[in-house]
Design brief:
heterodimer; A: alpha+beta; 7 helices; 11 strands; globular; B: mainly alpha
């Protein structure tokens, strides 16, 4: 247990699950999208839909998509900020069977034609869990630096990626593999102990059989180390 | 090493001849693989963020629902008029607790301690004191160690254990912190924690319309004032007849057996009163995206 999960995070209120966690979910979606979001359809499930307005869940999600972290003082005015940054968004309710009560489904288009469909839940205390990416079930939290790699399901793809990480001196903390069917598109989620540089991530993108690579750098600003004055 | 029980922390204090807060500091250094100086610097940033949050309180602000705001200012004005029945310290504690919890409800920046809903308790008892840097570290490490033990043995989430797990834990953290900076022993910290938790045991989480507003803001006051009385009792030599670790376990058990209506679902207690329901309906009618 991290004592700064007890005393902390520094965050914009009122709720660590419904506000801070929501901002993290939006921020995660922006990162995994890999470019500036231009239009988003945000679907709220369960308690996120029931109490979202009062907790600012809607604004925190939009703020996260705009790159705001949980302690960003602009979260309350995220809707106005979205206008300034040309992000079109629609928010509505959805019923997702078997989903955690605090869940959002984010369908977002980015600059340059990128697209992401991400389902994520807020577990309490600001901790989040990404449940689905583009319809594929995954489970990761952003508590580690995280690589999300789409690849062709072929022999050797995993060995190639992990071999390269090994050469870069990057230790794999957790790794999961997901695919729709044999020989189709597959997904690797790799959580690492070390940070990766933009160049290292780029290098992974150019490996054979790799369709796309996105990288989430473990957020450190929620510990108050990077106040924006 | 793990912060699994108060007994374990007290044992390490004896073994290593060091105060409570240094056991917690050593734990953080080990757990996050950082230097002691880095850990302390981060803790002082938390303190700075608490102070900033208190300084930025604005009595004109209102929460999204309009239910909350301005009470911290009212309390401060009342204190200034000299009308409070309490002494200067406790009346200021009340004003600080209200202000911080209102800031949270109004989407200002706060420090969760241990949760956002209970963020007013710990700073409320510490901010009115003129603390030096060492005392700040003593207080905050002691508080986080206590919170970590409660999180490990019971719960710090209203959805799991009711309000006793949030305001109760915050109150126990604040009580222990106060004993630490006043030079109390490890055992006295334990008694303060036990008494603070015992006196809030069973408190339900019943937020009106599911929002962190009513009764959360004022519950921060009872958490803070309860902490002051538990710390004073412990410093007077008064002991909890039930061992602190047993009290924490009992709180966890009460939480687990608490009906779901009283665990942040807004289906019982104050949330289920006619007034509470009316607020919920008003908020739902306003739902438009």
């Amino acid at each position: 247990m991290d004592i700064f999960d007890i005393l902390g995070p520094v965050m914009v209120g009122p709720s660590s699950s419904h506000t801070a966690g929501a901002a993290r979910i939006g921020y995660m979606a922006r990162t995994l999208l890999g470019s500036r979001p231009v239009s988003a359809r945000i679907h709220l499930h369960g308690s996120f839909a029931e109490t979202g307005i009062g907790h600012g869940t809607d604004r925190a999600l939009v703020g996260g998509l705009l790159g705001m972290k949980p302690d960003d003082l602009r979260i309350p005015s995220a809707f106005e900020e979205a206008k300034n940054q040309d992000l079109d968004y629609v928010i509505d309710e959805i019923d997702l069977p078997d989903a955690h009560p605090n869940t959002a489904l984010i369908d977002v288009d980015g600059e340059g034609g990128t697209h992401l469909l991400m389902q994520a839940s807020s577990l309490g205390g600001g901790r989040i869990m990404v449940n689905k990416l583009d319809g594929i079930e995954v489970n990761f939290t952003g508590a580690y630096n995280t690589l999300v790699i789409h690849n062709h399901d072929e022999n050797g793809a995993v060995a190639m990626v992990t071999g390269l990480l090994n050469q870069l001196g990057v230790n794999v903390a957790n790794m999961t593999l997901h695919r729709r069917k044999r020989g189709g598109d597959a997904l690797m989620v790799i959580e690492t102990d070390q940070h990766l540089t933009i160049h290292q991530v780029d290098f992974l993108r150019h490996l054979e059989g790799i369709l796309s690579v996105t990288y989430y750098d473990k957020e450190d600003s929620d510990d108050g180390s990077q106040f924006d004055a | 090493m793990a912060l699994n029980s108060m007994r374990e922390i007290l044992r390490r204090m004896e073994e290593q001849h060091c105060p409570f807060w240094e056991v917690v500091l050593a734990y953080d250094v080990d757990e996050r693989q950082v230097r002691a100086e880095e850990s302390k610097a981060k803790m002082l940033l938390m303190w700075q963020a608490m102070r900033d949050a208190a300084d930025n309180y604005n009595g004109q602000r209102r929460s999204v629902s309009g239910l909350v705001g301005g009470d911290g200012m009212k309390m401060r004005q009342y204190n200034r008029r000299g009308e409070s029945m309490l002494g200067e310290y406790v009346s200021t504690v009340i004003a600080e607790a209200l202000s911080m919890a209102e800031s949270n409800a109004c989407m200002c920046r706060i420090v969760a301690a241990p949760t956002a809903g209970a963020c007013g308790v710990l700073p409320a008892v510490l901010l009115p004191l003129d603390l030096n840097q060492r005392q700040i570290l003593e207080a905050l490490y002691t508080a986080s160690g206590i919170g970590a033990v409660i999180a490990a043995k019971a719960s710090i989430a209203g959805a799991e254990g009711g309000c006793q797990a949030e305001i109760g834990t915050a109150s126990a953290m604040a009580a222990g912190a106060l004993v630490a900076i006043r030079g109390g022993s490890g055992a006295q910290i334990g008694h303060a924690v036990a008494m603070a938790l015992k006196n809030l045991m069973g408190l339900v989480c019943d937020p009106v319309a599911g929002l962190v507003e009513v009764p959360c803001v004022k519950r921060n006051v009872i958490g803070a004032v309860n902490a002051v009385s538990a710390a004073d009792m412990a410093m007077a030599g008064i002991q909890s007849r039930i061992d602190v670790d047993e009290v924490i376990e009992a709180m966890g058990q009460v939480g687990r057996r608490m009906p779901v209506e009283f665990r942040e679902t807004a289906l019982g207690g104050l949330a289920a009163t006619p007034t509470g329901k009316a607020v919920k309906e008003r908020m739902q009618a306003a739902r438009k995206w």
